[in-house]
Design brief:
about 425 residues, Fumarate Reductase Iron-sulfur Protein, Chain B, domain 2, Rossmann fold, four-stranded parallel sheet, 21 helices, 8 strands
């Protein structure tokens, strides 16, 4: 009996968002689409499944029908004549399948739109609408709740952080033969705060070891933090404005409390985008410190002579996957190429690459939405084909969401490659001061 009132309340919340939170830019996009179809071949999901519903234009049209119903005179008076659609549970369910199950918010379609609209921005608004109706995938919701409750998506305690880093620090000292090497935690007044993706602490500690090696070789004054260290922001994936603001603010306040001059984001595409480009808008104020990707920092060390690299230490051919949020939405493009050309013997580009590169299929929160796992792996075929065509033995990517998806694609499509972060490849090539 309580189900009907709950659904009615969810529809009312969604209608409130549709009527009151649609910004002028997105409204202009919804008016602009001419359904020419040129966007279809830019979308990795459509190229993999060849289903009309996967084209960016079809996904945009689902939102446009609702927009016309509530924001245009003809849509209110004669909805059938203009293809307007009322907001119903059925309409929302179809929109959820499109916005979460057929779109990774990669933004590649915007590069080729004949009228210059941004379908990914429309899908982000669609996700905000769906969030108001309680239709965000459970995996994404769970990550938001964990981040808001514990300060990170995996609920890792400060004690566990300190113990893990102490173990990694001991390994680093043994590996380089320097008992003075350190991986500081909660150091007040360090120049750099290195913020982590929780998956590194749980599943990819070698990524943190690699960063420790690089910071040590560059003689950086840096620190990690045992609390509020998480650079991931699933509020961003959900289109949840309040959650994305609150999650970003925890890390920013921690950096302010430590008194650092720069926040360096570990290899995470959306983490970099959300903190570097989105957070000042969410918070309504400029940040009191610089925010940069670890990729940018490593490239700066190399260019300044603070890092020496021996490419012969990485003899296998390496190709590079460009993360959408770091490259297409973040502008970090040439730094990773500069690093690879100095860190590996053979670097082979994918085709296409840079801003035009295809999404791996794991972006936009897809990895956390188990109900769309089959579609995610299917869409990843386009990336698998790109990798196979290079003949590379190693795939590098400066993003842990991408790393997770690429590892799954490696197994699913039997690519026979090794998947590594950029930091791991650079650390493998490091020549420490005082050695030849």
């Amino acid at each position: 009996m309580a189900e009907a009132p709950a659904k009615a309340a969810a529809l009312e919340q969604a209608l409130h968002v549709l009527r009151g939170r649609l910004d002028k830019r997105t409204a202009a996009f919804l008016n602009a689409c001419v359904r020419c179809g040129l966007c279809a071949d830019t979308c990795h999901v459509y190229l993999a499944d060849r289903e009309l519903e996967s084209t960016p234009a079809a996904k945009v049209e689902r939102v446009a029908r609702l927009f016309r119903r509530y924001h245009t005179l003809l849509g209110r008076l004669t909805p059938g004549l203009v293809g307007a659609q009322s907001l119903t549970q059925e309409a929302l369910q179809g929109l959820a399948a499109a916005a979460f199950g057929r779109c990774t918010l990669c933004g590649r379609c915007a590069l080729n739109c004949s009228v210059g609209l941004d379908p990914a921005a429309i899908m982000r608004f669609a996700r905000t609408l769906l969030g108001a109706a309680g239709l965000v995938p459970q995996g994404i919701r769970a990550n938001i709740e964990a981040a808001q409750t514990s300060g990170n998506t995996m609920s890792i305690s400060p004690q566990d952080v300190r113990e893990t880093i102490a173990w990694l620090e001991n390994d680093l000292r043994q590996a380089i033969g320097d008992p003075g090497a350190c991986m500081p935690v909660d150091r007040q007044g360090a120049r750099v705060l290195y913020a982590l993706n929780p998956r590194e602490l749980k599943f990819f500690p070698l990524s943190i070891s690699a960063a420790g090696m690089i910071f040590h070789a560059a003689c950086e004054n840096w620190t990690l933090t045992s609390t509020d260290f998480d650079i991931t922001n699933y509020g961003f994936f959900a289109g949840d404005i309040e959650a994305q603001r609150a999650i970003a603010e925890r890390l920013i306040r921690r950096a302010e409390k430590l008194g650092v001059r720069e926040l360096v984001v570990a290899e995470c595409g959306h983490g970099y985008r959300s903190l570097r480009w989105e957070a000042p808008d969410w918070l309504g104020r400029p940040l009191p410190f610089a925010v940069r990707s670890f990729v940018e920092v490593m490239a700066e060390y190399l260019a300044a002579g603070r890092l020496r690299l021996d490419p012969s230490k990485n003899p296998d051919p390496v190709t590079l996957h460009d993360p959408c949020n770091l490259v297409r939405h973040g502008g970090v493009i040439e730094e990773q190429r500069y690093l690879l050309r100095h860190a590996v013997t053979t670097f082979v580009e994918m085709t296409p690459n840079r801003e035009d590169n295809y999404c791996c299929g794991g972006g936009g929160g897809m990895l956390a939405a188990s109900e769309y796992a089959a579609k995610r792996l299917e869409a990843g075929r386009i990336k698998a084909d790109q990798i196979r065509a290079t003949g590379a033995r190693v795939v590098a990517s400066p993003c842990h969401n991408c790393i997770d998806q690429l590892m799954e694609l490696n197994r699913h499509y039997a690519l026979g490659v090794e998947v590594k972060t950029l930091g791991e490849i650079v650390a493998d090539a490091v020549v420490l001061p005082g050695t030849s």
